[in-house]
Each structure stands twice: as C-alpha cells, then as structure tokens.
Amino acid sequence: MRITYVEGVSPAKWLRIWADRRPDRPLETDRVLESEQLEALASGSADMAFVRLPIDETGLHVIALWEEVAVAALPRDHAYGDAESIELADLEGEMTAPVQATTELTLELVAAGTGYAIVPHSLARLYARRDVKAVPVSDAPTTRIALVWPLDRDDDDTQEFVGVVRGRTAKSSRGADAPDEPAPVKKPARPSTPKKPAARVFRSSRARRPPPRKGRR
C-alpha cells in the first residue's frame, strides 16, 4: 500500500505503529507538494493520502484530523518580528509577498523584503530560516489536515490503517457495515489567558451565639 503526505505533515508515528502490527505489509510513502497532493490518488499510484484542506472531495472518503495555526512570515527586521502574536489588522496596508509554487520559494521572497506571507505554522517550521520570523496570527483562519482515500477502496488493509490513524488498538476492529465515525478535530493550541484571582471571602472570627431556648410552659 502506498501513501502520500503533503509537506508539513509527519506520519512517522502511524507508520511505526503499522510496522509493529503488520510487518508482513510494509508501506511505501512519499512526500508531495500541496499542488500535487491529489495527483497520485487520481492516477492510482497512491492508495491513501494525507492532504491539506480544502480539496475537491468528490469520490473520496475524508477524515479531518487536526487544525494548523496560521503564522505571519515576516522579514527578520520587521517591526512585529519579535511579537508573541499579532492580528491581521496589524498588517493592514503592508505588501504581501507574491505566492510561489512552493512555500519554500514564497519564504525566499519574504526574506528578500518583498512583503509578508500567511502560512500554516507547520510549513513555516519545515522551511525555517534565520532571515524570516514566524509570528502567530490570532485571528487568521486555520487550515485542516485530513486523511483521504477513494470511495471504491474499502479493503481490509485500508480500514486497518484508518484504524491506526484513529487510535484503535490492535484488538479492536471496525465492522464491515459500521458507518464511518467523524474523527474529532484537534484544536490548535492557543495562548492561555491568565485566570483572575478568585475573590477571597472573609468570615468573622466571632462565634455565632445559639438562639435562646424557649422555656417550657
């Protein structure tokens, strides 16, 4: 079985689990550019793919896996280069770098001072360079990574790999007629907001006197 994965995705964890469970069925993997992420599936040279949404989902099973935080790729000497995070409004009026065929080429233009670029954090980390700063953008849309495969492919190996990605144990199995359950999408980590200190309640140190007893009649 051959699996492709888009740049910025690391399927190593699932490949290790598969190798432990199915040493008799080694997987072939190949990293592809985002612009090519569906070509191998369409040609039949790949059986499954980790892709970055959105895509044309026609004829495909799609399981959303996690979200990616967006960052602003800025030239090293940019005014916001050392900021912990910014908002899109902070970049209003600034030039954006011309989008290239690959994120790596786009970041080269950012480094050259042609403008900024909004990219997934995973890609900024993959193509990190000293002359480009990656700053989280708190209100920028996130992107999603998904596992996809053709609707007409539902063999045991495919379903077993889907189970590995979903975290099923080796002893668990998916019934042949069981419907696909939507996988919970992992939320990207966000900066935590400090909690306000709880209000202190002061109690009087004087003991309360019991009410006087009523005399018998």
UniProtKB/TrEMBL annotation:
GO molecular function: DNA binding; DNA-binding transcription factor activity
Pfam families: LysR_substrate
Coiled-coil residue spans: none
Family recorded in the similarity comment: Belongs to the LysR transcriptional regulatory family.
Protein name, per record: DNA-binding transcriptional LysR family regulator
SUPFAM superfamilies referenced in this protein's UniProt entry, alphabetically: Periplasmic binding protein-like II
Tree of life domain: Bacteria
Keyword Nucleotide-binding found: no
GO annotation, cellular component aspect: protein-DNA complex
Ranges for domain LysR substrate-binding: 13-94, 103-167
Basic residues bias locations: 203-217
Keywords: DNA-binding, Transcription, Transcription regulation
Positions of the UniProt region annotated as Disordered: 166-217
